[in-house]
Specification:
The chain has 389 residues and is an alpha+beta fold. The protein has three domains: 111 residues, Translation, Eukaryotic Peptide Chain Release Factor Subunit 1, Chain A; 139 residues, eRF1 domain 2 (Nucleotidyltransferase, domain 5, 2-Layer Sandwich), CATH 3.30.420; 113 residues, 60s Ribosomal Protein L30, Chain: A (2-Layer Sandwich). The protein has eleven helices and 16 strands. Strands 7-6-5-8-9 form a five-stranded mixed β-sheet, with helices on both faces. Strands 3-2-1-4 form a four-stranded antiparallel β-sheet. It has a four-stranded mixed β-sheet with strand order 10-16-11-15, sandwiched between helices. Strand 12 and strand 13 form a beta hairpin. Helix 2 packs antiparallel against helix 3. It is globular, with a radius of gyration of 25 Å.
Length: 389
Amino acid sequence: MRLGFLNPLFERPGPWATVYVDTSHADQSSAEEHERHAREACRRLEQQGADARTVRAVYDELATVTPATEPVGRAVFASRGEVVLDPSLTAPPQGAPHACWSALPHVGPLVELAGDDPTCLVAYIDRTGADFELRGARGDRAVGRVTGQQWPVHRTATADWSERHFQLRTENTWEHNAGLIADELRARQEETQADLVLLVGDARERRAVHDRLPEQLRGRAAETAHGGRAAGSASPGTHAARLLDRDVDEVRARHLHDHTGEVLERFRAGRVPAEGRVTAAEGVPALVDAAREHRIGTLLIRPDGTDLYRDVWAGAEPDQVAMRRTDLQYLGDARPAAVRADDALIRSAAATGAEVLTVPPDGAEDTNGAPVGGLGALLRWPYEGGAPQ
């Protein structure tokens, strides 16, 4: 998960009200239950010291959240009387609504409940150009189009010698437009930082574009025969649209599974010194040091890990984090606050553009070698002589 969307939370001071609410139950009593949960969450915030304006802002926001608007759930982050961010969830929180008043926004559960979000750049291709759409867990949006040569793009039915020149021009138009689409697709992927690409359209056109992609992007590109660029080819609610949605979900899930396995393999290898260099770290003290040095490249979080709950000291800036209060005062913050380790490290990761990846809980099939305490990292550059203890 890339956490750029969380930056509004880290660009202003706290304290923060955080609420995670489950809206997955829709029945006759759901409205009353939802109202009760909203009041209970606000009561807990008041008990923890939240100011009245912020509590009211949270309640007003929760009042708009229903199973019709949010089938699964929503997180609400508010400070100083204003809701700053309210992302949708892809998995419901367990139990009663979680409500927290703390120095930092409590973003730890969001990594699991909002889901790791590999984004998919869908290219709807035909012989004359392509439309591009970015799909992810937080919604879909159009991200542009490219138009190539419009004529000639259709072959004639005759094989007469006099038509050969025209047929050749048609082939050249197809080849030119495929190259143009591939170039624009590469540019859109770089602009959106999409994790993978899905090519939609006729098999010949898909393959022509695929073969012209840069090698690195070609390895992250998949194809589907469902849907197309023509109007009505995958209209919302149709069988074709459902098949296309299924294909997008499948390639995103496959990418996440493969990526998680690759990261865990690198983590297992990286925490063992090789030629005096360590490229991975685990445990709160080592990660706090790495965060201060902007060394974290990928932060690994196992949701059931005990290290997530450990207290660290955090200052106003994302790299102001320490194990002891006196260390943070030495770094220049006179009023540090005790915060959860996962919240402080996620803030640091978001500020430096690092990836945050949820790994399966202890005992799952593919967690061999995951961070023992639940927190680990692949480093942007290694420690020489071993990671700090």
